[in-house]
Structures are given as structure tokens and as C-alpha cells.
Description:
The structure is a homodimer. By secondary structure, the first copy, chain A, is of the alpha/beta class. Chain A is built from 22 helices and 19 strands. In chain A, the strands form 5 sheets. In chain A, strands 1-12-14-13-15-19-16 form a 7-stranded mixed sheet, sandwiched between helices. In chain A, strands 3-2-11-5 form a 4-stranded antiparallel sheet, with no helix packed on it.
Amino acid sequence: MDSMWKKILVGVAVGAAVLTVGILLGHYGIEKGGTEHAPTWLKALAQDVDEEVLDIFLKELDPKRMEDNLRELSLKPHMATSAGDQRLVQLMLQRWRDAETGLDEAWTQTYSVFLSFPNKTNPNSVAVVSAQGSVQFKSHVQEKVYTEDQKDPDIVTPFAAFAPAGNPKGKLVYANQGTLKDYEFLNSSGVDLHGAIAITRYGGSSRADKALNGAVFGVAGVLVYTDPFDINDGKTSDTNETYPHSWYLPPSGVERGSYKNSFGDLLTPYYPSKEHTYRRPESEVEWMAPVPTQPIGFEDAQKLICELQGAVAPDAWQGALQCEYRLGPGFRATGSFNGSDVQVNVYNRRGIHDSDNVMGLIRGSVEPDRYVIYGNHRDSWVHGALDPSSGTAVMLEISRVMGSLVKQGRWRPRRSVLFGSWGAEEFGLIGSTEFTEEHYSQLRDRAVAYINVDISVFASATLRAMGSPSAQSVVFTAAKQVPAPGTLSLSVYDNWKLFTNRTSPTHGVVPSMGYLSGVGSDYASFMHYLGITSMDIAYTYDKTKTRARIYPAYHTAYDTFDYVKKYIDPGFMSHQAVARTAGGVLLRLADSLILPLNASDYAESLESYLDTALKNFTDNLNAHQISLAGLQGAVLRFRAAATQLEKEIREIDPDKESPLKVRRINDQLMLLERAFLDPLAFPDKYYLWHVLWAPVSSSVRSFPGLAEAVEKAQRTQREEDWRWAHRQLTSVTTAIERAVNVLENALHP
Amino acid sequence: MDSMWKKILVGVAVGAAVLTVGILLGHYGIEKGGTEHAPTWLKALAQDVDEEVLDIFLKELDPKRMEDNLRELSLKPHMATSAGDQRLVQLMLQRWRDAETGLDEAWTQTYSVFLSFPNKTNPNSVAVVSAQGSVQFKSHVQEKVYTEDQKDPDIVTPFAAFAPAGNPKGKLVYANQGTLKDYEFLNSSGVDLHGAIAITRYGGSSRADKALNGAVFGVAGVLVYTDPFDINDGKTSDTNETYPHSWYLPPSGVERGSYKNSFGDLLTPYYPSKEHTYRRPESEVEWMAPVPTQPIGFEDAQKLICELQGAVAPDAWQGALQCEYRLGPGFRATGSFNGSDVQVNVYNRRGIHDSDNVMGLIRGSVEPDRYVIYGNHRDSWVHGALDPSSGTAVMLEISRVMGSLVKQGRWRPRRSVLFGSWGAEEFGLIGSTEFTEEHYSQLRDRAVAYINVDISVFASATLRAMGSPSAQSVVFTAAKQVPAPGTLSLSVYDNWKLFTNRTSPTHGVVPSMGYLSGVGSDYASFMHYLGITSMDIAYTYDKTKTRARIYPAYHTAYDTFDYVKKYIDPGFMSHQAVARTAGGVLLRLADSLILPLNASDYAESLESYLDTALKNFTDNLNAHQISLAGLQGAVLRFRAAATQLEKEIREIDPDKESPLKVRRINDQLMLLERAFLDPLAFPDKYYLWHVLWAPVSSSVRSFPGLAEAVEKAQRTQREEDWRWAHRQLTSVTTAIERAVNVLENALHP
């Protein structure tokens, strides 16, 4: 070979190799950040949940810290707007502003809201007064002291919030649970209710209804007590049976509560209660207890009920007080109260008070304008160790671990995470409702989901979750990842399935996640008014082991740290399980590339509602020329659209697809729930805009507006009531069709 | 130099050069498509309006083609649901499905809606009937034929749609414009209205109000005519003055119209009129003309009015008929109608009919889930050359040019462009309203803006535009780019400014763009019910040159191609100017990287409303302990948030920023308008959810709910009316605060 050729060849070979190296260097070796072809944000856009970060997060959720949180949170009574509440406002701010474990931002939002408190210098009571005017008996003004914490001077004396002041006096009658049926029974049994004082027991109806229903029959005052049958599995003695010997309610324990049937600030429905806000006159407020009403302990109730004369109450009305319950009116002639009346002395005062929400934010890295919201109220009735501080203890631990990861630069959520410590929940979900009113547009446009953890641990047996069907899958995923406390190797999910389950046509046997068809905690305005996919998560008891309506110290002075530590969750492992489950849901919602919301699970719920409607209503509706075919068609189309969207999600390649396609799909998943809002569906109710989960009187588990309307029309057989049923059918059908539109990309029908 | 060193150095130099070439090749030369670093969509994400494409688009909009469109569209009468309407449904579909100039998709949407038609075999009429029962005069059953097109057997005989059938007979009275004040004046003047037939002229009140107001005073039937003073600048003779000699209305011309005060299908408010939809009974429908009502020509009106007896009508009531107008009741004794009554014979029939919308779509390339909507109704009363076919002619030309660019692969909009050819607008915006009801959620989430071009050319003097303040800047931008017909070198914008202008605190002298505080065309449900930024664009006349309320052939049989070609826009250059202006707005909204919607212009409007409110209402409100401070604060915060958002927009570098940031800003701009919706602001009206533009009775140009409420309270001085004013103030303040939230990135207040 000629040397020149050789040189040339070698030169070309070397050159080619060098060129190749250059090409490779140029293509892969130079940092792409800042060049026009590969901006720095590119990789972040396609980032999914980092399971390693999630593991770290779950591991760091510390039961000991939650115990410490709870001790501090429940140190003092912290009823809404009290000094104790203000102390906790500062505590939340301090935690969320901590330099090492805090969030990006924390702030308060203050609303001036309509509340009701007893008179400190003139506490409410109930008296038996003889015909001559002498007081023969007076109820306890406060609960019996067993432990140091109950000596706190800030413990509010028992009262029925929003019940009017007054001193009505009359013959006592026993009205069972104070339902309309109960009063009707008394009335039809010849018991004169006019001017009477009705004693009722908790359960079976809302607090306010016990008074509202009684007032229909002319009842002048109402007493409410907790029957040991309903709460204590019959136990009544504080010498060895009730707290401090067990979790059961002592005889003097009194459940406080809000005696009104609507949530949010009563004077400013739909508008945030700010300085400029119009306040309607109290006379226009609906659904508050209309007559003086007072809750008492079962010790006092027994003194009254066991002296009643009159017919023996029906079996179902009997409770666990140690006597045969009679209806009244008035006391038996052979007893010491013969001829006496009962007087209810209520000195409550209504007024406007400033209540704070405390908010904390971690800004999202990729989609700061998408919010995953986690909330819990802060106000209690007394020490509120379980209600709500068990939830706040969990929230503070979740926010601490997340905050630490952020402060250390180890993690930042894709979407913004917003924490809310709501004020004045006990008076009717006021803080959260005012927040949703003020931020309606922003939340309507940007909120991905709302996770509510109020009382985090009712008891330590099993998870209990309620929520929108589209949230079921992420709750299941999170619950599968958490070991269940008190089991050898079960996950929270598997343990939950042991306690309560159902057979899903798609998934087989799964835990029963309930619907949010109530307004029992701060999820209400998020779900019903804003159509934000919501969840409510807690640990609870084994219903086969107790008849207790709820944990027995609920809303009493015995809901203390000591009570929780001794009888509810001594090792705080259930707190940890809730923190891990709810925290896992939160992190997945915040970080998943494609939102873990499931439209097919929504389809399954709609199909179940539809089946029930077809079975229960078809004949009656057809007889009035109303067809369910439109509804059937809508549900079918919903299923098809959900299937199609999920196919699209499966086929997506985040590295290749435009981030706007991912965003579009996420918007569809986020906004699906909004499509079910119809402000006109329930024109007589406030905030109940969600046509699928509105709480109604019907017990048929189907489309609520339709079910309630058909039941009414069946009862009355009035043409206008059938028309209303048809209108309800149109409302829900239209909403489902709109939801189909949200799931679909096309405008094409 | 040693030759080895030389070789090495040369080798290194060559190698370095080759390496450099390689690096450059690798970095820039290799197509990035499909690699992990630079996906194909990257460039498209940052693409802004292509001004070259826009130029081509504007140039191709062809006046000759619009003329051809109009000839074809107005060939036959095409009243809603008629054969002529169906012919145009097919025409639209055929155009939008054309292989070379069509859109991506076209389809129809059918709604079964409540309409009203005259009886073909028994046309309506008005008669003068003597006391003996002989008919002394009968009104024309149809308009006089001057040209071939008016011989069409499908021309609907004049009628007042939705007025009930009936044959009331009574003394004639002249009630001017039929306002409540007019009837009150007659009543207080001692004119007995009970059982009377009122003749009223068009203008001053809605059509239905002329009958609704009369019915309040017991009027039994209503006639409506067009006074030549109001429409013809006094001209009355068809021998040389009116059409076919000019654009003026011939003596027998009759304005048809819908006689009801609410839009959308009357039987299904808020729900799309589909098969399954609940229809309320007719008896529940509000605001339809309650007594038989018939429109007549001024030739017939003159015969009646000039025979009236009674007091001379006030000066302002006099018109251009050749006599002195008197009030009645009844005819003068010296005339041939002495002692006679007038009988209104109405045989209208109401019923449910299928009406189609035709929809056409161009899918967006980057953001297919964002819709820019352009619409125009299709149905007319008769040939409807101007109303609405002049608009349809423009829409078809815009869609043709866009469709061609798409089919040729030269262009595809960033966002989806949706065209709507609405049905049954003349009966109350029914097609567009049903569309917004059906697609409420999708449009709420995804619609960027709605452009309405109904009658595109009223006359050829100047542009006239109304719209949301945030649309002002894009309308201005588009109008600056179009030469004004009939001028030497003025733009449409400059020409417009000559005719109507105002001084903006920010921009100086600008054309006056009106607000959409009416419900006169299909923008109503988009703007008022859905809160979609909307515009209404047309060419119109020089108001200094004519008193005509509207073009004189409006809603008559003379609104024909011949009329347009001869007297409105002979060269179709005004059609072209509208097509270019509205088309430019459409293309900019579809293609701009950052939506050309302007929050600061919105701030200016709010500030102007606020100034007026402060001037007009402060004293009266303060006297009732109502402060405007909250509203003032909200408007201040709105201005600050708008300024801040615009700063952010100015600073954005689309090549460097994440496309999700661009999307976030666009969502803020898109959703701003939605924040002003409050379904509770006007509880007695349908669809009027927008708290800023709702049409109300007040003439004060301020926040409409507040203005109306304060005026009422000032009148009545009732405490409850002042409370309502306060509630209205809260509604608008809350809406503005929510709008601030939409403009802000933070949840932080």
C-alpha cells in the first residue's frame, strides 16, 4: 500500500473516529439546559411519583411525634374563637413556619361568623319545679371531675349551640329520638305536647330536628341526653364501668353540639363572612332549634325519665336507664315529683365572632396552579383530644415530614399541597365553608382533590374511608402500602376488607368505601358545593363488638389525651396508619404524572344507582309517562367514555407526548366531579349542588333527588310531585351527560 | 520545525476541527424528533401567531364569494324548522364537509323546542267591526309584492310569535311604545283600558312588554306597528320613497318577532331540550305576551290611528303618519269607523318542533381542548338576507379560507376552532342556548371566547363592536389591520374611532366598544350564563344621518338579496371588512401563544363602574349603614392583580419557560370571566348569572344589580329593599374578589 494512501486512510479513520466522538459528545455530552432544544423543565414535566421518596415519607411518619402533638393540642380546651383556639392558631403557624420542618408559606384567614355560646356567669340547667314553685331537682351544671384536666376553668358548660335562650316550663314527656314519627306517635297516643318539655335521646335524627320536630307539635322546650344503651353498651356505673375505668361515658357526661341543620355561616349563605358582607337578619335563618333546648347527662335524665307517668313507651323506645320508660306527660303521683313541671333554663347568646382558618402551602414544582388540599378542623368543644385533635396531630406530622423533605431540598411536589386548619367546624363547618365561598373560582378551576381527616382514630380496629368513587383506587393503593396495626402481616387494605367489604363487578371483593352523601365534616362544601373529589379517612371500631353510636366521650369533657392514650390508641399506631394512608393518598395525588382518579369506578357507582332506580322506580314512573331511557343512555355513554379515556391513559408515553396532552387528561379527571353540580337541583337547600351525593330523606341508594322525589310522589300521588320527579330525572341525566362531555375530547355528541 | 511535530500539530488541528464539526453536527445537525431530549412537539408549544398566515387568510376573504353565499342563503325563506331552514342545514353541512375547503368535522345537533307559528290556512288579521257586526276594514294579510322573491309561497304571514290565539274586540287606544309609563299615562288620563285594543309602535320596550304592560291594565288585545318616524326618517310613499326605491320600509312592511322576554326554550330552562327532558306546562311559562297580539304595517296603522278620537297624544307620542295622533278610546264620530270596535284575530299555534344547530370543527394542533367559538344563527323570519344570512355569508367565507388552509396542510390552529350555525334564534336564541345547556361543563372548562356575527352589515359606514372588556384589545388589533371600505387609507379601527369614541384613562382616545349588557343575539347564553368572554361584531350606519332604529327592512319580507345588493353593501366590501375583522379576532384567539385577552382593560371598566357607583350611591347607602369600601378595595386589588399578571406575561420567554406556565397564564385569562358568575345574583331571572353585564332596568352605567337595587330602595325606602341592595353589593364584591383570585397565582389573600 502506498504510504500516502495509508496516511490518508489512517487520517480518514482517525478523523472519522474523532468526528464520531464529536457527534456523540455534541449529542449527549453537552448539558441541554438553556439550549433551545432541551430546556431544563423538560424532564420534570414527565416525572411520575418517586416511590423512593414515598417510602421515606411513610417511614418518617412517627407515632411518638403524633402522641406529642396530641398532648400539646389537647392540653387546653379550644372551643372555636376561645383563648385555647387562639393558642392553637399560633401553634399551627409556628409549626408551618418552622425553618427546618415548615412549609413554604403559612397564613391565617379570619371570618366574622355567627356563633352561639352559653352565658359564663349564668350556666344553663334543668330543674324540676313543684306547683308551689320550689325547685325539687336541678341538673348538673358541669360534668363530674375524675382527672386533673377536667378542672380546667375553660371547659364550656354543656349547651345546645344556636338554641334560643328562654325558661319554658311544662309537663315532661319522653319523645324517644325526637323524630317526626316519634312526636306523631306521642300525639296520636293522646299525649298532650302543647307546652310540654320533651326529653329525647341522641341518635335517629339531627340535633336540631329534635327541637324542630317538637315545635311542630307545640313543644315548649327540649332536653337531649345520651342513653347508655346507645353509647355505653348499657354500662352506667362510674364506680367501675365507665371512664376513667373504660372508654364508656360517665353518668354526668354531656354531648354538646350544634343545633342547626345547615352548614356555613348562617347569616351569609354563599358569601364569605367578611366585613363588607351582607348579613341577613336572624329572623330569616332557617332550621335552628326554635325552642330552648339543653343537653344533659344520663344520670340527670334517669332522674327525670324514671319518674314519668303515663303509658309505657314502646319496646324500641326503651333504653338502658334502670327503669321502665313511660311517655308522660308529667311525673307519677307516687313519686317525689308528683305534680311538678320541668323547667329548661337556657341563657345562650348568639353573636358574631372572629374565627380563623390557618393555611399552609407547599408550592408545586411543575403545576403550582393545581392544588391538592388536606384539611382538618382545629376547634373542639372541650379538650377535643379525638375531635378534632387526633386529626390535627396526624396533619401536623404529615406536614412536618413533607416540610422537612422540602426544606432539605430532597423533594418538592409536582402540584401544590395546601393544608387547612379550619375554624368553627363544630358550629356547622363554618371555617371550611367560608373558605370555599371566598375562593370559589380558584378552587373550581384548580383544586384536584380534598382529603379530610377529622377524628383520625375513633378506635383501633380498621380503616374507614368515604369518598367520591373516582378516589377509591388511590385510597386502595395507599392502604395496600401500609401495615395494619395490631395484625401480624396484613395491610391496612386487607384488614379493612375483613371488616367491611362488597363485591365489585370489576374488582371482585374490595373494602366498602362509603359515599360522601352526608355533611358531617369539612368535606361538605368541597364535595357538595364545589364538586371537588373528596375523601374522609379515619380508623374506627369493630361494629360487631359495640353498639356505640360513636366513641362514648364524643363532645364531652372526657375527650382528653388521657382517654386517647388509655383507651383509644395507646401506642398511636392507628394514628400512624391513618397518617400513612391519608399521607400516601396526598402524595400520590400531588406527584402522579397522571392523576390517580378513576372514571371507571365512577361508572360502576352510576350503574349501581341506575340498577336500583330501574328496579324501584320504573313501573311508577312509566305509569306517569316518565321514562328512564335517557338516564340509562347517559350511564351507558359514561361507561364508554371512561373506558376510552383509560385506554388513552394506558397508551400515553410521557416522554414522547406533549405535556399539554398529559395536562388535558388530568384536567378531565379533575373536572369530572364538577360536571355533577347543578345549583338548581335542590332549590330549597343551601350548598347541595352535587346531584349524586346530596343527603336526602330517601333510604333508597340511588340518585338522591330522583329517589326522594319519586318517594314523595308515590306518597302524595299529586301530579305536580310526579312532575318534580321528572325534573329531578332531567337534572341528573343532564349532569351525567355533561360528565360524559368532560371525559370526552370531542365536542361531537 | 520538525516534520513529525508538524504532522502532529496538523493532525491535532485537523482532528480538533473535525471534532468541532462533529460536536456541532451532533448538537444541531441531527434531527431531534424522537430522541429523549427534544421531542417533536417542543417547537409547536412555543409557536405564536404566524403573521404571514394571517395575511394570507385576510387576503383570501373574498367579497364576491360572500355575495354568492348571500344569494344562495337568501334564495328561499328559511324560518326556523321550515323546509327552507332544512335546505340551509344541508348547505352548511355540505360546505363544512367539502373535501377541499371544509373543516375537520361537521355535524348537527337537534333540539325539540317550543315554538309558535301562525295558522297557514287561517292567517291573522285585524278588522274594524261596526256595532252591527259588519267588517269595515281588514288589515293586509301579507306584504305587498314589488319583486319576484316576494311571491314565494313560503313567506310566513306576519305574526307575533308566542302571542296566544284569540279574537278580542274592543275600543282602540293609542299607547305609544307600550311601556308601563305609557299605559300609566293613558290610565291617569282617564282613558279606559279595560277590554281595549291597544295599538303601539315598535321601540322603547321589548315586544312582549307591549302586551305584558297592557295586560296589567286590562287591555284585551295589542297591535304593534313600525312608525315611519322611527324607521323611515318620515318617508311613507312607495311610489318613490320606500323600497324598491330606497332602503326604507314600504307601507305594508311588517316587523315579525318573538313576543317573550326570556331566552332559550321556554319549557326547559337550564336543561337541553332533548327527548328525555322534563317540560314544564305552558301555564308555568313567564313573560310571554299574555293577550292576542298582532304586528301590522304602517299603512294599516295609519287607517286606524288617524281615525281615533279623544285627547291629542303628547308631542313625544306623535309619529310620521299623516295625521294628529289621538289617544282614543274609539274612533271619531265624524269618521267612517264611528262606533266601531277593533278586532284582533290571532290563530297562532304553539308546539314542539325539531330545530338543528350545525356545528363545524377544526381541531387544534397544540391545545385541541381549548375552543374558540364563532357563531351565527341560521334561521330567518322570511328571506333574511341581512338577518341572519349576511352573517352566515361571512361565516362561510371565514370557514372556507380556514378550511382550505387546513386541507392544504398550510396551517392548523393552535386551539380548536368551533363554528356554530344556530337554529331558532328568532324565537329567543334557542339553538345557542340549548347548546350551552347541553355542553355546559365542557364549555365552562374549555371555551376561550365566543365571537358572534349575526347581521354582519346593518349599513356600510363603520364597525360596531360590543364585548367583554378583556376582548377590547384583540378587537382593536384586528380592526387596525383591515382597510375600511369607502375610505382612502383609513383602517377599520381609525374609521370606527371617527364615528364613536371615548377617552380611556390608559389608552387615550379609542373607539367605543359597547358592553354586552343585553340579550339581543346568540352571545347571551355564552356571556351571561357561562361567563365566556364574548364579542358581537358588525358594520353599521352613521347615526347622524338617519333616525332608523335599525335597517328598515328588518324582520320583513323585504329583507332580501336585492335589498342588500342595492342599498346595503353593493360591492360586499363591508361584508369583507367584517369578515376580516372578526376573522382576525378569531385567528388571533386561536393561534396566539398567550391569549390576547386583557385584564387591565377589565380593570378600567370596573373602575368606571365604581366611580359611577361612588358618585351616585354613596350618600344613600351610607345613610343605611352600607359601605362601598369593600367594593372599592376589591376593584383596587383587581387592578393590582391585572398589572402583576401582565408584568409576568411581558417577562415570559416562551422558549425557556415550561409550556405549563404558558398554559397556566392562559387559563387565568380564559377563566377570568367565569369568576363573575353568581347564579344567585338575580334569582328571578333565567341565565343572568354574570353580575357585571346583566340587563336591568336601571339606566345608571354601574354594577347592574347594585344600581337596580339602590334605585328601587330609593323609590320605596323599604328596609328590605335596602337589605337587598346590600346583598347585591356583597354579590358583586365577592365576584370581583374571586376574579382577583383567578388573576393571582397565590391562594394567599
